[in-house]
Design brief:
single chain, mainly alpha, 2 domains
């Protein structure tokens, strides 16, 4: 349980006061205390600030962030069945997208938007309407942004795009070179963590969706973190 892990880390650090933990952080003492109470699931920002104040290691941060995704999923009733292969009915795809969002941790809308590069890629209103089953993603770019915002990794990306094309009645085309490069980058997630500045330059030159993906890969995450998170979420339910 996430709250238990946070409380244990505070004890390990010598039980500093929450005021001491909040010093030098833009997260308040009250927010840090609430995170450890277990009454609600804290944001990733709060978790990171809490563990930084406790001097926790990378592996603890990994575990805490995975527990956060599990907690958000469980708050919404736990893992849901997803049927995507063969689906050609709009309502079935909308049900699948809603279930996908929950299964991968029910990320907040703002967090989904940030993962894909901003509002121009995935407006908050579109996320809301998709998850409320009021509309499908309007085009391939928005569909790709939505599933990436949910946290879909490389092995499932193509099947979701194919499902969208079937429902929209568009002919399935071989992935464009840029799409293939995007998939390849996701498959090489671990390797990219060790690469240096040229990748940042490439991210700035790429289109917005690819840039969002690249910058996610290059943020300060331990090697294998996202694969570990996906594997942990897959194991439970």
């Amino acid at each position: 349980m996430l709250a238990e892990l946070l409380r244990a880390e505070r004890v390990r650090a010598g039980t500093p006061t929450y005021k001491q933990m909040a010093a030098g952080s833009d997260v308040s003492a009250a927010t840090l205390k609430r995170a450890a109470s277990g009454r609600s699931t804290p944001s990733a920002k709060t978790i990171n600030a809490y563990l930084l104040a406790c001097g926790s290691g990378v592996s603890t941060q990994e575990r805490a962030l995975i527990l956060r995704l599990k907690a958000r999923r469980d708050e919404r009733g736990g893992r849901r069945k997803v049927f995507v292969e063969g689906s050609s009915i709009p309502t079935a795809l909308l049900d699948g997208l809603a279930a996908l969002h929950v299964n991968l941790g029910a990320r907040p809308y703002e967090e989904m938007q940030k993962r894909v590069g901003g509002a121009h890629m995935l407006p908050l209103s579109s996320i809301s309407r998709i998850l409320n089953r009021e509309m499908l993603p309007v085009d391939e770019r928005q569909m790709a942004a939505f599933i990436q915002g949910c946290g879909v990794l490389n092995r499932d990306w193509l099947k979701w795009m194919e499902a969208w094309r079937r429902v929209k009645g568009t002919e399935s085309q071989p992935p464009r070179p840029q799409a293939l490069r995007r998939i390849n980058l996701l498959e090489r997630r671990d390797e990219l963590h060790g690469l240096s500045d040229p990748w940042h330059e490439r991210a700035r030159r790429s289109d917005s969706l690819l840039r969002g993906m690249l910058l996610e890969l290059l943020e300060d995450r331990p090697k294998g973190f996202w694969r570990l998170a996906e594997a942990e979420l897959e194991k439970t339910g």
